[in-house]
From TrEMBL:
Keywords: Membrane, Transmembrane, Transmembrane helix. It comes from Cohaesibacter celericrescens. PANTHER family: INNER MEMBRANE PROTEIN YHAH-RELATED (PTHR34980:SF2), INNER MEMBRANE PROTEIN-RELATED-RELATED (PTHR34980). The chain crosses the membrane at residues 27-49, 70-87, 99-119. InterPro entries: DUF805. This is DUF805 domain-containing protein.
Length: 162
């Protein structure tokens, strides 16, 4: 079963792991999470810093980030390393090096090939970056099913005759 919190925390724990491969479902799940957290941070900035004059802790936050969207900056600092690493691992899954992730820096045109590379299916089997994560998940699932103990036979309901 797909565990929401477990998946997020496993991705965040691997924030600085740029080796290996990541499945397409895991990448797009984290991409959506990253985007939702960005819009939540932007909404918090608009609510707390543009509507009224901040006081207390919010004033300290605004001072730390130069008066520029502190919640967006906090989002950027906390989640961008994880987004970069999962993008590199997804590119590895397609057989590309992580340097292809920098193609999005090309204005207007860079995003198209990057989304095309990230959206395609995994390379089957092994590539130079490791085993297919989907195949590994299936092996783990099959191992879990085969390692379950067989159900014990129920004891006889009849008492032995004497």
């Amino acid at each position: 079963m797909f565990s929401l919190y477990g998946k997020i925390f496993s991705i965040l724990r691997a924030s600085f792991a740029f080796s290996g491969r990541t499945a397409r479902k895991e990448f797009w799940f984290f991409f959506v999470f990253y985007a939702l957290m960005y819009f939540a941070a932007l909404g918090a900035d608009v609510t707390y810093f543009r509507q009224a004059e901040p006081t207390g802790f919010l004033l300290i936050l605004q001072g730390l980030f130069g008066g520029r969207e502190p919640f967006v900056w906090i989002h950027f600092l906390l989640l961008t390393p994880a987004m970069a690493s999962i993008t590199v691992r997804r590119l590895h899954d397609r057989g590309h090096t992580g340097w292809w992730g920098l193609v999005y820096l090309i204005p207007l045109l860079g995003l198209v090939p990057l989304v095309a590379m990230l959206g395609r299916a995994s390379q089957p089997g092994f590539n130079r970056f490791g085993a297919n994560p989907f195949a590994l998940a299936n092996v783990a699932k099959n191992d879990a099913v085969s390692s379950e103990p067989a159900p014990a036979e129920a004891p006889s309901q009849m008492a032995p005759a004497e």
